């Protein structure tokens, strides 16, 4: 078998429909485009976002309130509840961003951590985080632990 012997399988190639050739072909005269109008004429199909000359929604979006606004000074915190800490750490353990990553609570030690007071804690822990809620601080200290905060660098955004 050589290159000049290659041929497509019988019936795999269909002839192109020749529209507008004659009435007998059933695609003559209007060639399947219907009667008059913009879509019946050559080049008459407009782009998907064209709205008849009106300013398209796509171009209005940047002006919509709040869309595309980026606050470089916003600080994203990863929330961790005291209930999670009591389940994952033994008594007297040090809880800091690295320890939270090792325990599988967060995925990145570079993120800012906020300790929240949801749930109960009954083991004394040494907690070090960027932000601690008043309720969480009260519960940790009541259980015999201590709380220390890490300074947050303003203007440096850490994101997930």
What would you note in describing this structure?
The relative contact order is 0.12. The longest helix is centred in the C-terminal third of the chain and has 9 residues, at 134-142. This protein has a domain at 77-149: Ribosomal Protein L15, Chain: K, domain 2. The protein has a three-stranded parallel sheet with strand order 1-3-5. Strands 2-4-6 form a three-stranded parallel sheet. It is 16% helix and 14% strand. It is an alpha/beta fold and 160 residues long.
Features:
Ribosomal Protein L15, Chain: K, domain 2; 6 strands; elongated; 3-stranded parallel sheet; alpha/beta; 4 helices
- What share of residues is helical? 10-25%
Record field, number of beta strands: 6
Strand content: 5-15%
Label the overall shape: elongated
Blueprint (SSEs and pairs):
Blueprint: H1 57-60, E1 77-81, H2 82-88, E2 94-95, H3 97-102, E3 112-116, E4 126-129, E5 131-132, H4 134-142, E6 146-149
Parallel strand pairs: 1-3, 2-4, 3-5, 4-6
Short description:
By secondary structure, this protein is α/β, with parallel strands linked by helices. It has helices at 57-60, 82-88, 97-102, 134-142, and strands spanning 77-81, 94-95, 112-116, 126-129, 131-132, 146-149.
